[in-house]
């Protein structure tokens, strides 16, 4: 149960992180945000990133083996990275339809999944 909760919180965290880091790239397409300066964009992104931390910190505390969770520190990090890629790809396909995935991207993702396999291999 703690493992599933950890993964769910990491997905939520990474969703906010992705919007904070990359969502502002679409601001110029939105009437309310099209003329914002960089300081305003940074402040909005920080506000979004706050919610990332609301989910990320509990995810790590709940999931960490020394706190009674199922994952080592390295496993937590690798999970977070793979979840980040999955969330990022979904975000890209939904909001940046002009971006494309190339063979070298797929090969890189394959090696990341392979990394997960080896990190979790006992």
UniProtKB/TrEMBL annotation:
Pfam family, one: DMT_6
The organism's place on the tree of life at top rank: Bacteria
Secretion signal span: none
Keywords attached to this entry: Membrane, Transmembrane, Transmembrane helix
Keyword Repeat part of the UniProt annotation: no
Bilayer-spanning residue ranges: 36-55, 76-96, 102-120
Protein name per its UniProtKB record: DMT family protein
């Amino acid at each position: 149960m703690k493992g599933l909760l950890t993964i769910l919180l990491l997905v939520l965290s990474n969703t906010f992180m992705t919007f904070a880091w990359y969502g502002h790239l679409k601001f110029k397409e939105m009437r309310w945000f099209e003329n914002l300066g960089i300081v305003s964009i940074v402040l909005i992104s920080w506000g979004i990133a706050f919610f990332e931390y609301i989910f990320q910190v509990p995810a790590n505390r709940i999931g960490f083996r020394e706190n009674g969770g199922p994952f080592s520190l390295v496993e937590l990090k690798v999970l977070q990275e793979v979840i980040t890629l999955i969330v990022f790809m979904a975000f890209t396909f939904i909001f940046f339809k002009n971006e494309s995935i190339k063979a070298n991207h797929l090969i890189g993702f394959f090696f990341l999944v392979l990394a997960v396999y080896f990190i979790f291999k006992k």
